[in-house]
Amino acid sequence: MAGRFRPPTPTTRTTFRGGHTPVPPPPNAPLDPGSDPDPALSPASAPIPGPAPDLGLTLGPLRRGPADPTFRVTPDGSVWRASRTPEGPGTIRLAAVRDGAPKADAWGPGATWLLDNAPALLGSEDDPAAFVPRHKLVLASLRRRPGLRLTRTGLVLESLIPTILEQKVTATEAYASWRQLVRTFGEPAPGPAPEGMYVMPDARTWTRIPSWEWHRANVDGKRSATIVRAARVAARLEEAVLMDPPAARRRLELIPGIGPWTSAETIQRSNGAPDEVTTGDLHLPGIVGWALAGDRAADDEAMLDLLAPYAGQRHRAVRLILLSGRVPPRRAPRMAPGDITRI
Fold first, then answer.
1. Are strands 79-85 and 71-73 parallel, antiparallel or unpaired?
2. pLDDT tens digits for 174-183?
3. Cα separation, 331 vs 151, whole angstroms
């Protein structure tokens, strides 16, 4: 029976959504914890304590498409992220070292903040031992991914804005809009980051983007207005990282245009919430229903019933289901991406 639940080898749209970002293994001559490619350019560096997570699985949910300008995987097995921290823009590189534990290097005004929060980013606050598989498919998916941890970025706006861009459109459209807006209004990532990496704009810049630039980025007025409203109260929204996940979601949902789908997708990343389930999604209930009960017509209520045995760990269960690659057979063509820039 185990072969029945074997996930597909290549990355699919479903496994990508589950956080599958392929990261090459470190080279035969791993990075020495005491070395640095250019000490003059790397003012902050530190090993990350604790069990070694799978960098691709743990950080994969933070990647918004294969060409995300804030996220890069390099051939040496390093993962680079450019973030706007409370202390300013910064770039962090996470790479495996000889003992298997990752090492972090950071640059820019936000370097210290990024290093201080690197353990949480790699799942130090996650408790995978609390998860008990209740289905064969989930168990098989978990066994193949022992390094899966739930990330906690500690940053709300950097997860919220791209999530708003994903409302009611295809992933292809949302990723393209995110790339264009970040490259146009952001700033180059500090340090020796790979070419083409950018830090997203600050809150004030988001509120000052002209209407025609939103249009050029293929973002309709409803989504752009929601982003502007959120950016105007960014400081209050960032307080949500200190709240328990249900309260954090309620804080976000006070903003018109932010509902349960958007708040869940955001808090899963910013707060590392293991139990927050995405509802209101077009495809997720059918995927979960098909994987656990053979019910491709499942709705949110049916999905939550199926996930009830995983109370406290439902988000992790959903990720493992998505990573299994088990989806119902397609009955219709994919939704065609829209383009309002021609209007």
1. antiparallel
2. 999 999 999 9
3. 34
3-state secondary structure of 93: strand
CA terminus-to-terminus distance, the chain: 53
105 SS3 class: strand
- Of the candidates 285, 231, 283, 290, the one whose C-alpha atom is nearest the C-alpha of residue 258 is 231
- Using alpha carbons, list the distances in angstroms from residue 211 to 45, 149, 166, 219: 41, 39, 18, 9
- Rounded to two decimals, the pTM is 0.90
Q: Which residue, 261, 63, 92, 84, is CA-closest to 175?
A: 63
Burial label, 225 (beta-carbon count in 10 A; 0-12, 13-18, 19+): middle
The sign of the dihedral angle between the CA atoms of 182, 188, 193, 195 is positive
CA dist 114 to 39, 77, 83, Å? 17, 19, 8
Backbone torsions φ then ψ of 336, nearest 5 degrees: -75, 135
Which tens digits make up the pLDDT trace of 218-234? 999 999 999 999 999 99
Using the Cα atoms of residue 73, residue 49, residue 149 and residue 27 in order, give the sign of their dihedral.
positive
**Using alpha carbons only, what angle is made at residue 60 by residues 59 and 66, rounded to the nearest 5 degrees?**
130
